[in-house]
UniProtKB/TrEMBL annotation:
GO terms for biological process: lipid metabolic process. Pfam families: GDPD. GO terms for molecular function: phosphoric diester hydrolase activity. It comes from the Bacteria. InterPro entries: GP_PDE_dom, PLC-like_Pdiesterase_TIM-brl. Residues 13-270 form the GP-PDE domain. This is Lycerophosphoryl diester phosphodiesterase. SUPFAM superfamilies: PLC-like phosphodiesterases. It comes from Streptomyces himastatinicus ATCC 53653.
Amino acid sequence: RSDRDIRPGPHTVSVVAHRGASEDAPEHTLAAYRRAIEDGADALECDVRLTADGHLVCVHDRRIDRTSNGRGAVSGLELADLAALDFGSWKGQATDKEAPDRKSRDSTSVLTLERLLGLIADAGRRVELAVETKHPTRWAGQVEDRLIQLLRRYGLDAPPPGAPPPVRVMSFSARSLHRVRIAAPAVPTVYLMQFVLPRHRDGQLPPGVRIAGPSIRIVRNHPTYVARLQRAGHRVHVWTVDEPADVELCVRLGVDALITNRPKQVLSQLGRS
Ligand code: G3P
Ligand code: CA
């Protein structure tokens, strides 16, 4: 796309809730994602990992110790083990086991990707999803296979021609993104960057990648990189943008999406609430 199409503007920036509205509610729980939808986020971000029995769950760390009252690696636990735990009390939001209504018990339980897809399907408005594959190379394609299987089940792997894709897959691993493109070519892929490798300095990314995902640190240190990526044909989704000065910088540079732990505050800063 040409330089003329790259236009900054608060209303063109998509606001993506990072791990849900994770500043206000425990990350990666239904509570956090419900809050993000209520807040008006355009999209939800989640990390996915495989359990020992092959379920994709939304957990950031390799182990569950930080975000639950249990211990161990996700990959060594079955979904039933995880379902018995509380993923809310570390942030002061304990699951009320006595709660009569299932909704309140579920809101701080482990969240499967399938349940999150169900939440989005019931949102009553368009909410996009950005799924990040964590440590995918350890699983020889199983994470991507399972992910695509689920997206197919929900009809999200092949949007009608011309329709904006409802789901994108993000990863720091180019190999993981390649696997996704082979299995589901219509699903856009986001190449996440913590630093800029020499081969990507001119804005070129791994073949087939449509969206660049630089960290806010990259954008702060190399603001002209955004335009370089866009000139090379990529959209730019920046993470994790929580500070008002960073929001302002990203808008000024014309980034396409802001991934934030504070969707409500960012939407308010953008004049959208
Ligand atoms: O949205 C990308 C960002 O989430 C990558 O970092 O560690 O929060 O998964 P991390
Ligand atoms: Ca992530």
